[in-house]
Amino acid sequence: MTSTSIYLLIFFAAFLHAVWNLIIKSLDNSLVGIGVKMFFQSIIFAPVIFFVPLPEGITWFYLICSSLLHSFYFILLGTMYNRVDLSFIYPIARGCAPVFVTILSLIFLQEIIPLWGLAGILVVSLALILISIDKFKSNLDIKLIAISIFIAFIISLYTFTDGSGVRSAKHASTFIVWNFFFGGWISISYVYLTNKKELFQLKFKRLLLILSASIISFSAYAIIIWSMKYEPIGFVASLRESSIIFATLIGLLFLKEKVRLSRFISAVLFFIGVFLIYNA
Hints:
mainly alpha
């Protein structure tokens, strides 16, 4: 498969990522929604593990680390969806993450990324951070910036772990299937312990909505993990963040939201970054 085909698949995955996030955000309790979403994912992949080769060697290490990092991130994300306005934090976190991932891959995997590719990653990251420019003007909160950078670090760690993990496995399907099987148990346990009442009050329609979010979510991330086996992890991480651009388009076209000038400039810059990455 050509790089062009892989990049198009990554953009499709980014669109799916935006969709499932919108579904989870629409719920009364996003933490419960994320916990159930991850639980559905593990249940769905429980029988599938018998049809892929067993992980071997260091792949087990990456799977365990990935499970812990993803669980921590999703619990944190669900909690923040319930308590905090993420319009400032999320773009900064998702914008910084590709830079951190690239640094990790350059140091530990000795990936060779052309200069134009590095420039493209930086432009993409800047474009995403610019989405929060209006918040910078009105209120510069050092605490929120620190939280954003911490979340970016977590995102970069699980992305790097998954990229390294899928490369360590003989078959991409082995890492992907076992990753998804392990992924939900910690999250649902945390939700059960902290939000038991809300968990058992979920109605059937809500469960179907969460199930759809789960299917959309793991379909999107399976593409991302698979892509990191063949393309530089920093490139994949950067292109994946187009999900924020897709979320803006969905808001404009279907939710009739107004798009600020900063978001338009961000979108233009983002695709300049994509152009640099594609031609690197």
